[in-house]
């Protein structure tokens, strides 16, 4: 593939995706996803916002030290400290990029920045120049470009390119654009900016009106050659453009697009499942490409057509995006080596032998409960093992729940708090309600339960249930995830994990304007 024909895929799951309320990830979880993105052959991985917190800095640095095939990028406002911190974080990377940005819309310049347009241009130039002092690969973004004046965009972009920016990103920060209009904006910029040929033009679209993918593809048709997107469309508010939809739209409609990507599409579904498991954001069944129903056919007419000739009702092959990986891989008679090998194939690694041993013990226990162990089960086991390594204030020791027709459900639990065991019990309107009330009778967290969601990890009545619990306290939102073949135990695990996340306090803060 020649350079002019390549569409660069810039994945921001670990930065913008993590800004979804409750989706904050640990360093180990970020590293697992980064490895999956590298296996997917993503061109650029935006690993985080280095100045946001010490934890974010360490995560970006760890990814920079580990990833070799993809460019590792850190976001930075157009401020000296931001840029220097980003440069420090990506220094170990084989290929590193600094992504700096400043707002360019009248409403942002007036009310947020409180700066005149000429001052904004001067600061953008200073930022790009400083970033180029650290790395050759610098990207500049015009925050809220979708509501910016075209003449001003032309001025600031020309100046940024002259200062050394080699990628220019046009974000639809608030999801305001319409495809035809957004495509025309990209066309105008490419034709009106004298030095536009010296940079790759990129787009970063939000999904507030459900048009993120459509706007991105319109921009590609108009000449954009980088798309910023996330796995499962994860992101702040209504999310970002979905990586899997962008990639497969371009790949499927080669009759319309004169570009293609480097993405190894067979790893799309595994990457989707990993992100969903780690963040606790389930994939809706009717989600394009990666939803459980994406290749399912209920209608008799459709079924008949597919059986006679697949392409009558399927424009893509399920195996091409990784659905074949759902096949049985392990059972209760599988040994440690087979277990380790399959984990490595899935990109799951443990830092110590004791962690692997703990995961193997969990695997054997699960295999005694269900005959077929799928890749999704292994992802859940890995997540449980990594979570257990995190120092938790609360721990579930054992529990007993009584649910009987005509009798008020009752839950009895033994919880460990700072090493001491406490027995608690409560009644509720159902077994889950009783379980949560029993936990709260001891911890009195003051949290508001915002979401309780149950999904089966695999098919069958013996499948593990994956529960997501979203708690809010003092404006801070966290997601706890628990998995077990017993849905009540999974619920308790999820609630306790969320409480542990809340108890660790606010370790991550996003500077104003992080959402480009």
From TrEMBL:
Q: Which UniProt keywords apply?
A: Amino-acid biosynthesis, Branched-chain amino acid biosynthesis, Cytoplasm, Leucine biosynthesis, Manganese, Metal-binding, Transferase
Molecular function (GO) terms for this protein are:
2-isopropylmalate synthase activity; acetyl-CoA C-acetyltransferase activity; manganese ion binding
Matching entries from Pfam families are given as: HCS_D2 (PF22617), HMGL-like (PF00682), LeuA_dimer (PF08502)
Matching entries from CDD domains are given as: DRE_TIM_IPMS
Annotated stretches, region: Regulatory domain: 395-516
Q: Which GO terms describe its biological process?
A: L-leucine biosynthetic process
Which EC number(s) does the record attach to this protein? 2.3.3.13
Q: Which cofactor does it need?
A: Mn(2+)
A GO CC annotation recorded here is: cytosol
Q: Which residues bind Mn(2+)?
A: 16, 204, 206, 240
List, alphabetically, the PROSITE patterns matched.
Answer: AIPM_HOMOCIT_SYNTH_1 (PS00815), AIPM_HOMOCIT_SYNTH_2 (PS00816), PYR_CT (PS50991)
Top enzyme class, one word, equals transferase
Q: Which residues form the Pyruvate carboxyltransferase domain?
A: 7-269
**Catalytic activity annotated for this protein?**
3-methyl-2-oxobutanoate + acetyl-CoA + H2O = (2S)-2-isopropylmalate + CoA + H(+)
- Name the pathway: Amino-acid biosynthesis; L-leucine biosynthesis; L-leucine from 3-methyl-2-oxobutanoate: step 1/4
Q: What does this protein do?
A: Catalyzes the condensation of the acetyl group of acetyl-CoA with 3-methyl-2-oxobutanoate (2-ketoisovalerate) to form 3-carboxy-3-hydroxy-4-methylpentanoate (2-isopropylmalate).
Which HAMAP family is this protein grouped with? Answer: LeuA_type1
Homology family = Belongs to the alpha-IPM synthase/homocitrate synthase family. LeuA type 1 subfamily.
User: Subunit details for this protein?
Assistant: Homodimer.
The identity of this protein, by name, is 2-isopropylmalate synthase
**The species this protein was found in:** Marinobacter zhejiangensis
| Gene name as annotated | leuA
